[in-house]
From TrEMBL:
Belongs to the phosphorylase b kinase regulatory chain family. It comes from the Eukaryota. One of its GO terms (molecular function) is kinase activity. InterPro entries: KPBA/B_C, PHK_A/B_su. GO terms for cellular component: phosphorylase kinase complex; plasma membrane. This is Phosphorylase b kinase regulatory subunit. Its main location: membrane. It is found in: Cell membrane. It comes from Nothobranchius kuhntae. Phosphorylase b kinase catalyzes the phosphorylation of serine in certain substrates, including troponin I. The lineage of its organism: Eukaryota, Metazoa, Chordata, Craniata, Vertebrata. Pathway: Glycan biosynthesis; glycogen metabolism. Residues 138-282 form the Phosphorylase b kinase regulatory subunit alpha/beta C-terminal domain. Keywords: Calmodulin-binding, Carbohydrate metabolism, Cell membrane, Glycogen metabolism, Kinase, Lipoprotein, Membrane, Prenylation, Transferase.
């Protein structure tokens, strides 16, 4: 950590930064640099090492993230190496958001620590950092709680196969578009300006989701979008008459979930959604069931209107 801080203060230039960024871009990904929870800078074209480093420092240092600035440089180099050798570890991740990957690694350290204080990520050696990154990128083990899986997948911004195509199919059936975290994804001109499979559309979807703050909530929204697509596919005769407010649908689903918990388990209502995040998607009283019900109710309400 002292080394990281010293390196940071000297603004040590890492020569491998530029080729590492290029390795990531070549795989059809974008990179964002900056602290989790703060503004990020998107990199979609190769840049010189000095420019990359400038971005990292300008985004990390003002928020007291000197050690983070050095860590992000290390991670960019590790990610460049891993993506060249094991691109499958980044499947479903269109944007490599380095600050969010740090968050995933911090979640992982917390999970490992159990009730003990977690290790400080900034105290780990570069080889331990690389190993932790590899561990986090591995498909989530089934022994994990659903909360932990959602935290990590949400932090990695991982999406299921066919996700962006599904969002396109939803847009085709929602004249007023989709709203989430205060961001509106309109049906038009999106559908007329783009095609289903183009990168720009996928990036637009990612952009729509980027204001979501909590990784586990992001994952629920991704789950919800898959649910909406399936419901629409199975009910070709109905369309959404109004905007699809994803936050509103999650809220409805969560309220329903709470009602069932108080009915079946005598649980008090809570504002905290942790119990919902811990619930598996499938199975009896799974999150997908509640999300599906909320979607169906909104669809049918639209149909009843004169």
């Amino acid at each position: 950590s002292v080394v990281r801080l010293a390196a940071s203060l000297l603004t040590k230039l890492v020569d491998s930064l530029a080729p590492s960024i290029t390795s990531i871009l070549v795989q059809g990904k974008q990179v964002t640099l900056g602290l989790f929870g703060h503004e990020e800078e998107v990199i979609s074209n190769p840049l010189s090492p000095g420019v990359i480093q400038g971005i990292i420092y300008s985004k990390c240092s003002p928020h007291g993230g000197e050690r983070e600035a050095v860590l992000q440089q290390e991670l960019v180099i590790h990610i460049g190496w891993i993506i060249s050798n094991n691109p499958e570890l980044f499947s479903g991740m269109l944007k490599i958001r380095v600050g969010w990957i740090v968050q995933a690694m911090k979640h992982e350290l917390k999970i490992r620590a159990g009730d003990m204080p977690p290790q400080d990520i900034y105290q780990l050696s570069p080889s331990d950092i690389k190993q932790l990154l590899l561990d986090v990128l591995q498909p989530q083990q089934n022994s994990r709680s659903w909360l932990n899986r959602r935290q990590i997948d949400g932090s990695l911004n991982r999406t299921p196969p066919g996700f962006y195509d599904r969002v396109w199919q939803i847009l085709e059936r929602t004249p007023n578009g989709i709203v989430v975290a205060g961001t509106h994804l309109p049906q038009q001109p999106t559908l007329s300006d783009m095609t289903m499979y183009e990168m720009n559309f996928s990036l637009l979807v990612e952009n729509t989701l980027k204001k979501i703050v909590l990784p586990e909530y992001r994952q629920i929204i991704v789950e919800l979008l898959m649910v909406v697509a399936i419901v629409l596919e199975r009910n070709p005769e109905v369309d959404f008459s109004d905007k699809v407010d994803l936050d509103g649908l999650v809220k409805e689903a969560f309220n329903d979930f709470q009602k069932d918990r108080s009915r079946f388990e005598g649980m008090e209502k809570q504002d905290d959604m942790e119990a919902f995040y811990k619930t598996p998607p499938l199975g009896k009283r799974g999150t997908s069931g509640y999300l599906t019900k909320a979607v169906m109710i909104q669809l049918l309400q639209g149909e009843v209107k004169p």
